[in-house]
Write a structure and sequence with these properties.
five-stranded antiparallel β-sheet; Jelly Rolls; 2 domains; 353 residues; 17 strands; alpha+beta; hydrolase activity
């Protein structure tokens, strides 16, 4: 084997180390004292700095990073912040967005911050909880709690968005060339842009501190392919936009590896699996016995649209099960979502613990 001169080895090592440092060094977006580098699109009084944190408490406003890091234009990156919510507070972190006077950002994606609801029975109750890629892939169960700091991390790799709460993967979405968006969310598309924080309403108080970002190489590849079935992707996005909590109670896992694979795939669909919930939360026997829940097992046949309509008309909540399989089958999921649509169900009609 031909040996390289020591000088070349040292140069190569230096270049590799420099490249590694460029792609992994975290840079702060907030000095902990002022809002330097940040600009509100409206109602700037909504934003204050208290005890080393950016705090939103006031009328609707969005605070956009306009500082020097990356010339506030990020494509592939990891963003991290510590967040604390108060009960019932709503906020969000926008990525790939741009400063504009619009009341709500029209470009980029929102990653939801919302841990608990104060909605009364019969009122709208948000099913898009912390970690949701808002109205695209949701989690209905908050992975964090109010009045405690948690770490929110967002990673964009090519066309893949991932959200993590305290290092747990919550949602993952890979954007395809042809995807459905609601009319008021047509700008939810990856390109590049800045970070923005959401001040949602006067009743919401949320704190952000240690806001940091590190850029990834421009040629970073997507972590997964888009779903093979555009129709399924559209159905999932429609359900997410319409606030449906998607839960499957029928999967079983025979090994830890199998369970991890199931959960990983469910994160891409915006589904929650029954075996990740507590036994008390998924015990439908009592509720089913008194007629309050209809459990639909669609392992061998598609859900009956007339039966779903009848359940809705009688006020019975509806839950779904794949019937003891070890894999969340995309074709079965598509058939289920089409039946929900054909029956005219709304988010209120589906069972949610």
């Amino acid at each position: 084997m031909k040996r390289l001169p020591l000088s070349l080895l040292l140069v190569g090592s230096f270049l590799a180390t420099s490249l590694y440092a460029q792609t992994t060094a975290w840079k702060s977006l907030f000095d902990g004292k002022t809002l330097t580098g940040w600009q509100a699109n409206e109602n700037p009084g909504t934003w204050v700095v208290e005890d080393g944190a950016i705090v939103t408490k006031g009328n609707r406003s969005h605070l956009f990073y306009q500082g020097n890091v990356g010339n506030h234009d990020f494509k592939n990156f990891e963003f991290s912040a510590e967040v604390m919510t108060t009960p019932g507070s709503n906020s969000g972190i926008y990525i790939h967005t741009k400063l504009a006077p619009d009341p709500w950002p029209v470009t980029g994606y929102e990653c939801q911050v919302f841990n608990s609801s104060k909605a009364k029975p019969g009122e709208y109750s948000e099913r898009k909880m912390t970690g949701s890629i808002y109205a695209v892939r949701n989690t209905w169960r908050a992975p964090a709690v109010d009045n405690e700091w948690f770490v929110y991390r967002i990673k964009v790799s090519g066309k893949t968005i991932q959200t993590f709460i305290n290092d747990e993967l919550i949602c993952q979405y890979t954007e395809g060339a042809d995807h459905w968006r609601a009319d008021d969310k047509k700008g939810r598309r990856l390109s590049s842009g800045t970070i923005a924080l959401q001040g949602h309403d006067p009743g919401s108080t949320v704190r952000y501190r240690n806001l940091r970002i590190r850029m990834l190489p421009a040629d970073t590849r997507s972590l997964s392919s888009p779903l093979d079935d555009p129709e399924l992707d559209q159905l999932l996005s429609r359900m997410a936009d319409q606030n449906f909590a998607l839960i499957d109670l029928g999967l079983i896992a025979e090994t830890v590896q199998q369970q991890r694979a199931q959960v990983g795939f469910s994160r891409r669909l915006g589904f929650t699996l029954g075996h990740t919930l507590s036994p008390s939360a998924t015990n439908l026997a009592t509720w089913g016995a008194n007629g309050s829940v209809l459990l639909v097992n669609d392992r061998y046949q598609a859900p009956s649209v007339p039966a779903l309509k009848a359940a809705k008309a009688s006020g019975v909540k509806i839950a779904f099960s794949s019937g003891g399989v070890t894999r969340l089958d995309p074709e079965r999921v598509k058939t289920r979502l089409k039946a929900i649509t054909a029956a005219g169900l709304s988010w209120q009609d589906l069972w949610c613990p």
